[in-house]
Amino acid sequence: MPVIRALVIVMLASTLAFADGTTRVLLADEDPELQRAVKATLAPWRLEVVTSAARPADANQAQLIGDAKTARFVVWREHGELVVLDRERGEAEHREAKAGPLDPASAAAAALTVKTLMRLPPPDQVAEAPAQPNEPRDQITRPTGPADDGLELRVQGGVATRVARGQQNEFGGRASLAVFVKPASIALRLGIAGELGTETDVQGAGFKGSWRDWSVIGLASWAFSVAPRWEIEPYVGAGVLRSMLDGEEGMMQRQERETLVTLRAGTFVRARLGRFSVGALLGFDATPGTPTYTRMGMGSQFFEVPPFALSFGLVVAADLGR
Questions:
Q1: What is the pLDDT of residue 266?
Q2: Are residues 124 and 155 part of one domain?
Q3: Minimal CA–CA distance to 56: which of 79, 81, 28?
Q4: How far, in Å, CA of 198 to CA of 162, rounded?
Q5: Residues 9 and 66 in one domain
Q6: Alpha-carbon gap, residue 20 to 14, rounded angstroms
Q7: Contact, 239 vs 262, CB < 8 A?
Q8: Contact 220, 192 (CB under 8 A)
Q9: Strand pairing report for 276-286 and 91-96
Q10: Domain enclosing residue 218, as ranges
Q11: From CA 75, how far away is CA 114, in angstroms rounded?
Q12: DSSP letter at 164?
């Protein structure tokens, strides 16, 4: 019976909290300037902002506090970051923020960041959107058009070891530079990556030289938060690979150039540190229709451009904001 009584109390509290359709935001920060700035910034959306001096230790504790307070969003600062937890989406987003007491300008900037991370629609759409009979009371109607907060830009560099499978296994290094853009309203990122590989020695059937390649690949990725600060980001892509073979064959110079289509799939695993992130990458490349080179006039094969490759390495990225 005590358990049933507790459940009834929680249900009644939730019903009363949202009886007027108001969405609640819990600001778990005792800073008075931040409290004033957040309330002023969110006022056009008619949100109920409640404050608490007890800051959650992590996203899991914030989820529990939000449940207890019947708050759709929980906002707090930790380790030099501003964190906004959306209980409905089950996601916590982090942005760099000042620690300690805030002056009015810093508090206003932090409040704007809170508004951006909450993915709020224009205020007039909140006021005009009718409540649906089966729609949760704490749900905010989202715009159907493009988000008004622009694009987030990410610049990422990486180094990796590549194991390429062709006529024989080839081991080499890769350096990459990528640029991604992300609409503010979704976790999808679209980008382009340029990569340069190290040279591989090629020797056989009277040929002695080296092979190298570079590639330009378009990528699409989707990030999933798995823990505070940690995310997994699977990606797929397609692009072009430029293959270059140079060497000597029978006292004569030989050069071979090919432009090939290459396909890629893999994942990033990264830890977010404010606007920066560090992590690991794992990728698989497939290049159909790779050429095989033979000695002229003899047909003796000495090299095949690898049709498959596996890469693993490290990445560092910076989110430059909107």
A1: 96
A2: no
A3: 28
A4: 10
A5: yes
A6: 11
A7: yes
A8: no
A9: unpaired
A10: 151-319
A11: 8
A12: E
Asked whether residue 225 falls in the same domain as residue 87, the answer is no
Contact 306, 285 (CB under 8 A): no
For the record, the structure tokens of 67 come out as: 């449940």
- Find the radius of gyration of the CA atoms of the chain: 27
Query: Does residue 230 carry a pLDDT above 90?
Result: no
Q: DSSP letters along 195-220, please?
A: EEEPPEEEEETTEEEEEEEEEEEEEE
Q: Say if residues 76 and 55 touch (Cβ distance below 8 Å).
A: yes
Place of tokens 């939730």: 14
Q: Please check whether residues 299 and 170 belong to one and the same domain.
A: yes
Tell me if 46 is assigned to some domain: yes
Q: Are residues 273 and 163 in the same domain?
A: yes
Q: Is residue 140 part of a domain?
A: no
Phi, psi of 54 (to 5 degrees): -90, 115
Give residue 297's pLDDT: 66
Confidence of residue 136 (pLDDT cuts 50, 70, 90): very low
- In this structure, are 103 and 24 located in the same domain? yes
Are 166 and 306 a contacting pair, CB within 8 Å?
Answer: yes
Cα–Cα dist 47/85, whole Å: 15
How many domains is the chain partitioned into structurally? Answer: 2
Domain shared by 75 and 198, yes or no: no
Mean pLDDT of 143-172: 74
CATH number at residue 246: 2.40.160.20
Rounded Cα distance, 256 and 319, in Å: 40
> Hey, is 168 helix, strand or coil?
coil
Residues in the chain: 322
